[in-house]
Amino acid sequence: MDFFRHAGVAAVLIALSLSLQCGGLAALINWGITRFVRDTRRLGLWRSAALIVRLTGVVIVLHLAQIALWAGFYRWTCFPTWEAAVYFSTTSYSTAGYGDLVLPKLWRHLGPLEAMTGVLMCGLSVSFLFAVVTRLVGREVLFLTDLRPVATPKQQAAPFKPETLTLFQPGGGRRSGAGD
What distance in Å separates the CA atoms of residue 14 and residue 20, rounded to the nearest whole number? Predict the structure, then answer.
């Protein structure tokens, strides 16, 4: 009976961690879409750097919230102080796992599960930040090479069909009146 209770607790903690991470990243994506997608201007070095710093800070806060979630459970069931619970949760989540503080035998399976969850959540965060940097570099390349997406009037009126879209036409979107 204890196994199923502990498995249920682990499933709830993992589901809450995943919900925090995915919900936070979804909110960041939504904020980015409303803030930057329609903005066709070049962000530039400093604005791009500030954006990455801001997003990284929010992602770190998401991870700290997940560590706090696990630490809250550890404080409630395993450790007498918040310091010990937060320390154990942080070392488990980050997979540092020093081993100087261990869970009681009854709950010892939670440490590795938190470590596995932490690795996966960090992977999601790195993927998100990589996608943002890739978009910023792509936007910069488009600006510097002056290649703009070009759509014909027919494509603008018709539903989107990837096979008919010509992304970059020679000479498309040039600002200067110079010929090719």
Answer: 10
Residue given tokens 């710093």 in the structure block:
53
Domain containing 6 equals: 2-145
Q: Which residues contact 52 (CB under 8 A, 6 or more apart)?
A: 129, 132, 133, 136
Cα distances (angstroms) measured from residue 167 to each of 31, 45, 113, 156, 164: 26, 25, 45, 13, 9
Instruction: Tell whether the model's pLDDT for residue 113 goes beyond 80.
Output: yes
Q: How far is CA 59 from CA 27, 31, 131, in A?
A: 11, 14, 14
Number of structural domains (the chain) is 1
Answer yes or no: is 163 within a domain: no
User: Per residue in 94-110, pLDDT tens?
Assistant: 999 888 888 988 898 89
Q: Does pTM surpass 0.70?
A: yes
Taking only the tens place, the pLDDT of each residue in 48-80 is 899 999 999 999 999 999 999 999 999 999 999
DSSP-based three-state secondary structure for 68: helix
